[in-house]
Design a protein that fits this description.
47% strand, 260 residues, 13 strands, mainly beta, outer membrane lipoprotein receptor (LolB), chain A
């Protein structure tokens, strides 16, 4: 499985790591670069079936089942997501096309409306299909809009982690003012990422909950995004992951979203 992904805050991933632990004098940017190479939040060269569990403050649950295809072309990632369940959203689809300069292109097809539209501007701050992830969470943070600082190392349980603070420029198109990411030293998998709103208050936290090895590489099989301000949570559970690197380019187009 390929391991050359940009670091995205969301959503959907094959979550594979091949990086090795580095020397203790690594800078914040060094750690971030190594984390980018873990492919922690992207599906590349694979067909992944993912279950999404939405839990509200009162414990009521909703479920989503989706299938994700990912492919890298000319160094840029393409990802398409097709919702299989529940019935009322089955057939809906999402497409993200990474661009060399500027934000990724994003498209959504809603089966009920039978129409594809591009997601732009403030729409990217909206909830992705009712989850605690936004559309903006699914793409990389432009490095020119984030300043990374390495804080004192910590432990999560008995696991040593690097702690990186990423401050987001106020004029950047972002819901967040800063992020705190705790990165496992042994393989640079992000174990916990805290997202702070524009007022500096903790908004939500992304937890890595279960990891196992596939083809000799550690893969995150479960993750949870917990919204502190609403009490809502979204769990992502990988049900299956199969290598598939021969997906044709025609799958990754807006018009193809209407035909699975």
């Amino acid at each position: 499985m390929s391991k050359k992904s940009a670091y995205v805050l969301l959503f959907l991933a094959c979550w594979v790591s091949t990086a090795l632990a580095g020397p203790p004098d690594l800078s914040a940017d060094d750690i971030i670069r190594k984390m980018l190479r873990t492919d922690a939040f992207n599906w590349e060269g694979a067909r992944t079936r993912l279950r999404m569990v939405l839990t509200d403050r009162d414990g009521k649950k909703e479920y989503r089942l989706m299938e994700i295809l990912g492919r890298r072309s000319n160094g840029l990632m393409r990802t398409v997501v097709r919702f299989l369940e529940p019935r009322n959203i089955a057939g809906s689809a999402f497409l993200m096309l990474e661009r060399k300069d500027g934000p990724s292109e994003q498209y959504i097809y809603l089966s009920g409306l039978k129409r594809t539209r591009r997601i732009v501007g403030r729409e990217r701050e909206g909830s992705f299909m009712g989850s605690d992830f936004t559309y903006a969470d699914m793409q990389r943070i432009d490095a020119k809009h984030a300043r990374n600082t390495r804080l004192s190392d910590e432990k999560i349980g008995d696991t040593p982690v690097y702690v990186i603070e990423s401050k987001i420029d106020p004029d950047a198109e972002s819901t967040y003012s800063r992020l705190l990411t705790r990165v496992r030293k042994t393989d640079f998998i992000p174990l916990r990422t805290q997202f702070f709103d524009k007022k500096g208050k903790l908004l939500k936290t992304l937890y890595t909950r279960r990891v196992r090895k596939i083809e000799g590489n550690p893969v995150v099989m479960e993750a949870r995004m917990q919204n502190k301000q609403t009490g809502h949570a979204t769990d992502l559970i990988v049900e299956s992951l199969k290598r598939q690197d021969n997906v044709p380019d025609t799958v990754f187009t807006p018009t193809a979203l209407e035909h699975w």
